[in-house]
Amino acid sequence: MNLPDFKNLSIEPYRDREEIIRQVAAQIEKDFDQFGMDVQFSGDINYAYSELFAQLKEHLIYLLDRDYHRLVLLLYQIDVSEKQIINTELKFPDVPKSDLLTELIILRELKKVLIRNYFKENPDKL
User: Fold this and answer.
1) In this structure, are residues 27 and 112 in contact, taking their beta carbons and an 8 Å threshold?
2) Which of 21, 35, 72, 111 is most exposed by smallest CB count within 10 Å?
3) Helix, strand or coil for residue 121?
């Protein structure tokens, strides 16, 4: 197994990979829970992306409007950089910031899961 091309990573190829989806949902739930925000995945793989997107977006709208400091801490915990946010905003100036952040978070959580799985399957690569 080769390490995925993280520069050009897309969610699309993983939308029907049940185990990956469950791991990403669990990672999102864990990270948001650390900041007192409830995210719950129903387990329905067919609607995982839209279900998680809607919940994350709701939390991000609240944080953008009312608790920017906690938003910054959350993004730091998840490892979404300011540079990534700025670059994405420049590429998609008409997309609401809450949507952009939600997409960046889901992508980052996917990367975490893929990296963890890669090294679990290839311990000699550490």
Assistant:
1) yes
2) 72
3) helix
